[in-house]
Design a protein that fits this description.
With 429 residues, the protein is mainly alpha-helical. The chain has 18 helices and two strands.
């Protein structure tokens, strides 16, 4: 009988089987250690590797932009990604699987918050080093984290509550203009509002209050539209919420106090990477706790059968109004961050195109899922930037991808899945 050693197919199958088994044993903290090693390799050796591989500079987005601009550089870009990202990530993950599992087990027996903080510090270190190579990466990371907040906030309404709201760009605009107005009036010498009313040095410390103010204004706007809107359902609610978005946009365009159609600029540069990261983590944590709470269970009951939920003593009207305001609050906070990242806002930003982007992210990632919202926001944002060299054809590829997802995964890529931090951070067996 021929031995398995002389059969290359069986030998290869055994290798890939062992590799998959080994990768399955790597806990999250092991993958983070591998990611940290990968970005350190790029930070210190990226310029030399790109030079020897014939690349003009370090690829900004894993080589995709370079490949689409110059197809002849596809082999070099692929080799760069393998050398810088794939090999360090897999090698460190496999080599540290044992120690990483012991560390994960040790943290798992301790307080959950301690384990979560250690993982978040590692994650922030990775994205900080990765973004430090290019200002473009830094801006993209900030906008992606803001998109995560927007996607999560609309998923609370469209996914967990089961309504179809089109008013999120309006909430975002209210938050952006309210937070910008507060920071410009109080802490900035601005040509539109005049001298600052308070010492500018206090601004960075009071910036969270400005973001909360923007969220509160957006929530009050949601209350205005929610009281009459929730007497209707389905298409009627979608039309009313869409009308609200156009009303907000039109009002801002006609308010010279905030710049009118010219927009508002000169916002302070206070939305740095740590600030946006902390607010994104806070948003994920709060929304995840909200949807897993008693209110979240009531939301699912209202979504599945409102009459049955009402019969089971669920105050359906109050539940829907509170949820609508809750989602609008986080959209307003995201709008405030967005305004201070770009340091300019214009009413035209918060129109149909912004609504299409938000809806694409939430339905691509998955309804009723915190993980799905994160995946959808990150995927659509990165894909949109990676395909930028295609120009007009980009808006053919992305819609086709969305159509395929809607056909084969109507509820999104990762739908109806709970985000349990304890299960994610536990050691692998």
């Amino acid at each position: 009988m021929e031995s398995t050693k002389s059969n290359p197919t069986l030998s290869q199958d055994g290798f890939w089987s062992r590799l998959r088994s080994g990768l399955a044993r790597v806990p999250v903290i092991g993958w983070l250690a591998g990611g940290l090693c990968a970005v350190m390799v790029e930070y210190f050796l990226g310029d030399a590797l790109s030079y020897y591989l014939g690349l003009p500079k370090i690829p900004v987005l894993f080589g995709f932009v370079t490949m689409l601009k110059k197809p002849l550089l596809i082999p070099s870009s692929t080799a760069y990604v393998i050398l810088v990202y794939l090999i360090p990530l897999v090698a460190v993950g496999l080599l540290t699987a044992g120690p990483a599992n012991r560390l994960a087990a040790f943290l798992h027996r301790r307080a959950l918050w301690l384990s979560a903080i250690i993982h978040l510090v590692l994650l922030y270190t990775i994205i900080h080093i990765w973004s430090d190579i290019s200002d473009y990466r830094l801006l993209l990371l900030k906008l992606t984290m803001i998109a995560i907040m927007l996607t999560l906030s609309i998923n609370v309404i469209n996914g967990y509550m089961g309504e179809f709201s089109c008013s999120h760009p309006g909430f975002m605009a209210l938050g952006a203009y309210s937070a910008s107005t507060m920071t410009l009036i109080l802490f900035t010498n601005d040509k539109l509002f005049g001298p600052a009313l308070l010492p500018p040095a206090l601004g960075p410390y009071c910036y969270p209050l400005a973001l909360i103010f923007g969220g509160v204004v957006a929530a009050l706007g949601a209350l205005v539209v929610a009281i009459p809107s929730f007497r209707t359902r389905g298409d009627y609610l979608a039309i009313i919420s869409l009308a609200f978005m156009f009303i907000v946009k039109s009002v801002i365009e006609n308010l010279e106090f905030v710049g009118g159609p010219r927009g508002m600029g000169s916002q302070p540069n206070w939305s740095n990477l740590p600030t946006v990261f902390v607010w994104t983590v806070l948003c994920v944590w709060v929304i995840n706790n909200f949807v897993r709470s008693t209110m979240g269970k009531a939301l699912n009951a209202v979504r599945d059968n409102e009459m049955a939920a009402d019969a089971m003593t669920v105050d359906t009207r109050k539940t829907k109004i509170v949820t609508f305001m809750f989602g609008a609050f986080w959209a307003g906070v995201a709008g405030g961050l967005f305004a201070h990242v770009l340091r300019y806002v214009n009413p035209g930003t918060f129109g149909i195109q912004k609504l299409a982007e938000i809806l694409a992210m939430v339905y691509f990632g998955g309804l009723n899922s915190v993980v799905g919202s994160v995946v959808g926001a990150v995927s659509i944002n990165l894909l949109s930037e990676m395909l930028r060299p295609l120009e007009l054809f980009k808006w053919i590829v992305i819609p086709l991808l969305l159509i395929l997802v809607m056909i084969y995964r109507p509820t999104g890529l990762i739908a109806f899945r709970e985000f349990d931090v304890r299960k994610i951070l536990r050691p692998k067996q």
